[in-house]
Write a structure and sequence with these properties.
195 residues; mainly alpha; Rna Polymerase Sigma Factor, Chain: A; Arc Repressor Mutant, subunit A; 2 domains; 8 helices; globular
């Protein structure tokens, strides 16, 4: 089964064409790429529980990395995955820098015996694996899953407005997205027992 080209709903252009035009300095193409993918970039950074300003920093740095690597993107139609991986790396880098500069605290409270540190780390790793896999889905499905499960929008009207899709399309699109996500996770041995 071949890769299906993502076409921006707003511009009607494929990611490949948008990237080519952006490389030629077309600011409208850059704007459309950001409109199409910034929510994904910010949701990946948000999965690290960063403060809003840090999420913005990660997003800005991720877009800067795209500018720097624009001519080396081998498969433009997989831009979503590239952006998700880059946002993950930038989030880790930000956390490492923050840890290096954090002041040493002498009086630390006793750890809560009810909190299992290994389980906490495993849960965080599983969430990052899950959202990185979501980033490989077609952008329309990504936006829908983010709206439904990360942003936890209250109504289908909000979801439809956020995702620019008719309410009647939400259920079938969600079913296809979850089915595709389940297959991708199973291919990576990240089934329900691992998440």
């Amino acid at each position: 089964m071949g890769t299906q080209a993502y076409v921006s709903a707003a511009s009607g252009l494929s990611t490949t064409i948008l990237l080519e035009r952006a490389a030629d300095g077309d600011q409208l193409a850059w704007g459309q790429l950001i409109d199409d993918y910034d929510r994904l970039v910010r949701s990946v950074a948000g999965s690290f529980r960063l403060q809003a300003a840090d999420v913005s920093d990660v997003a800005q740095t991720t877009w800067l990395r795209l500018v720097q690597k624009l001519h080396t993107i081998r498969d433009p139609e997989r831009l979503a995955g590239w952006l998700a991986v880059t946002a993950t790396r930038e989030s880790w880098a930000l956390l490492r820098r923050a840890a290096r500069h954090a002041p040493m605290v002498e009086d630390r409270p006793d750890p809560d015996p009810a909190v299992d540190p290994e389980a906490t780390v495993a849960t965080g790793d599983a969430a990052r694996d899950l959202w990185a896999t979501v980033a490989e889905l077609p952008p329309r499905q990504q936006r829908l899953l983010i709206a439904l499960f990360r942003d936890e929008l209250d109504s289908y009207n909000e979801v439809a407005a956020t995702c620019a899709m008719p309410i009647g399309s939400i259920g079938p699109t969600r079913a296809r997205a979850l089915s595709q996500l389940q297959r991708k996770l199973a291919d990576r041995d990240l089934g329900p027992a691992d998440l």
